[in-house]
Design a protein that fits this description.
By secondary structure, this protein is mostly helical. It has helices at residues 3-28, 31-47, 49-54, 58-75, 78-81, 98-110, 113-124, 129-136, 140-158. The chain folds into two domains: 1-81, Rna Polymerase Sigma Factor, Chain: A, CATH 1.10.1740; 95-172, Arc Repressor Mutant, subunit A.
């Protein structure tokens, strides 16, 4: 690889690392595993950097690598062999109802990995159905059915009394990309 390639990749990744870590944290529910996931995704992105840099939306391309690495990790035997202990939740936004946020976080963490990935892509990354399907390498129908199943499971988990007012919802972490610019380049 050329030094220009290395410099461009390093500059891109250093600017995007916080957002990629937040995305991975939402998928993994654990900062340590999120760091491992981002590291694996960075290695793949580096190998395919020429293609990623030419993509219409490099952010979407790299984000798709992170999500696919998460899904692939969950398919391997590693996820069934290793048991991680529960970590205390990260501190939330001041004024937020921590109990409701923990209830929702616990319910999201209990979702199957593919349903969790679909929710993160659709509602955290603001991707539409087609873009999420491109990112996961599946059909739009799969995205729709997985979204419906995940939301129904969440509704059952948090119960009908869960208040959806902004003060009771967990705060959304800011992302570096404008949602209108996101495209599913995978």
């Amino acid at each position: 690889m050329s030094s220009d390639h290395d410099a461009e990749f390093t500059e891109y990744m250093s600017a995007r690392m916080p957002a990629l870590r937040r995305l991975a944290r939402l998928l993994c529910q654990d900062w340590n595993r999120a760091d491992d996931l981002v590291q694996s995704a960075m290695a793949k992105a580096y190998l395919h950097w020429a293609k990623a840099a030419r993509a219409d939306n490099t952010d979407a391309y790299v984000r798709a690598i992170v999500v696919r690495e998460f899904v692939q990790e969950r398919r391997t035997g590693w996820a069934r062999r290793v048991t991680l202990t529960e970590q205390p939740p990260d501190a939330g936004v001041a004024g937020a109802d921590h109990d409701s946020a923990l209830d929702l976080r616990t319910a999201v963490a209990a979702l199957p990995h593919r349903q969790r990935a679909v929710l993160v892509l659709r509602y955290f990354c603001d991707l539409n159905v087609d873009q999420a399907a491109d990112a996961l390498g599946c059909t739009p129908g799969t995205i729709k059915s997985q979204t419906a199943k995940a939301l129904e499971t969440l509704r059952r988990s948090v119960g009908p009394d869960y208040d959806r007012t902004p003060a009771r919802r967990p705060a959304r972490l800011p992302d570096h990309a404008d949602p209108r610019e996101v495209a599913g380049n995978a």
